[in-house]
Amino acid sequence: MGPEADRLRAELRDLVKAEVPEHFLGAFTDDPADLATAQRFCRTLADRNLLCMAWPERFGGRDASVWEQTVVREEMWAHHEPRGAQYMGVNWVGPIIMRHGTEEQQRKHLPPIAAGEVIWCQGFSEPEAGSDLASLRTTARPDEDGSAGWLVSGQKIWTSYATMAQWCFLLARTSRGERKQQGLTIFLVPMDDPAIQVRPIRCMMGPHHLNEVFFDDLRVTPADVLGTVDDGWSIVQDVMSFERVGIARYARCERLLAAAPTVLGDRWDDLPAELRARWIRMLTHCRRARLMAYRVVEMQSSGQVKPGDAAAYRIAVTKLDQDSAEVLSDIAAEVSHDDPRAAWFLGEVEDHWKYSQASTVSSGSIEMQRILLSRSLLAAHKGAGQ
């Protein structure tokens, strides 16, 4: 990426070292201080114009290249995402509002994201509509008070950050069409509305990650609609492309794998040859996932990204997540607990393993990614044949 990227990486690493506690394992632990650290760090990034670098200046960015933003993304994920939940607003909520939002929506929502002051959650998955998202049942029916608005009722599940978010990017059905993807609409709604109830779901990843969200006649207006009524599915396709490449998990995998020999020291050479071979294979897979991410970033920058391209990257990085977690766990079993470096490494590996268990389900299951990729390849094959 050139010397500018190297300088940016050094600046970001210095900031993390100065502003983030040494044993920080993410913003969403049982310790409220971790969330406070992330919120404070976001504001520091925003003050230095590093949070939304690739955004246009008029929206609070600095017109940096997509590659500079990629450097930020990689460094944040490599260091346990000290931006907390802000990556959602930075990587896809903001860019989607830039593409599809009205001027009023852009003025309202983009500056707070760029300043690191607001958290968003995503109201997509439902109890019977997870990977098959278009089968959702949350409904927006016309409000009979003559306001040209809607009343939203239904349930969402697995909603990360819902307990702390100020806004929700909500997908609901506004009509029925010939295909289930028709008649869906995106609404931008405030989470403090009394018609919204959040119930946390306990899980091993810690608080804030998984929640149920209930909507009981939530009143929404035409001003809350993102894009066109009944055409929300086209926006969902954009969301998936931005969201899936926006999570640079390969950077964290590579950092932990690269640290393993240093942590083990002289004991590294005593590891079974088979385990060291798996370690090498995982490093190779890290590079593969990184290059696939760069390919999608390049396509995004030219507006050419397709669902199949994002799906291929998603398959590679989620498999890397789980496979590297197994290798790292086996290596961690050989670490001496008396070594002062052990606590850091063991804590990071355990955290990585916990997150990896859900990686092939979150943001669209790996089975659905394979279907998307297969359809894309089949369409390309048919097109070539014609």
Secondary structure elements and pairings:
Elements: H1 3-19, H2 32-47, H3 66-78, H4 86-100, H5 103-114, E1 120-123, E2 139-142, E3 150-156, E4 167-173, E5 184-190, E6 196-200, E7 211-220, E8 225-226, H6 232-245, H7 249-264, H8 273-301, H9 307-332, H10 342-356, H11 366-385
Parallel strand pairs: 1-4
Antiparallel strand pairs: 2-3, 3-7, 4-5, 5-8, 6-7
* Overall average pLDDT: 89
What structural class results from the helix and strand content?
alpha+beta
Give start-end ranges of low-pLDDT stretches.
Answer: none
**Amino-to-carboxy terminus distance:** 38 Å
Number of helices: 11
What is the string of SSEs from the N terminus onward? HHHHHEEEEEEEEHHHHHH
Question: How many extended strands?
Answer: 8
Helix residue percentage: 40-55%
* Main beta sheet strand tally, sense and closure: 4 strands, mixed
The largest beta-sheet arranges its strands as 1-4-5-8
Radius of gyration: 21 Å
Please indicate the percent range of residues in DSSP E strands (runs of 2 or more).
5-15%
Q: What form results from the Cα inertia axes?
A: globular
How would you describe what is shown here?
- This protein is of the alpha+beta class and 386 residues long.
- It is 50% helix and 12% strand.
- It has 11 helices and 8 strands.
- The chain has helices at 3-19, 32-47, 66-78, 86-100, 103-114, 232-245, 249-264, 273-301, 307-332, 342-356, 366-385; strands spanning 120-123, 139-142, 150-156, 167-173, 184-190, 196-200, 211-220, 225-226.
- β2 (139-142) and β3 form a beta hairpin.
- α7 (249-264) runs antiparallel to α8 (273-301).
- The chain is globular, with a radius of gyration of 21 Å.
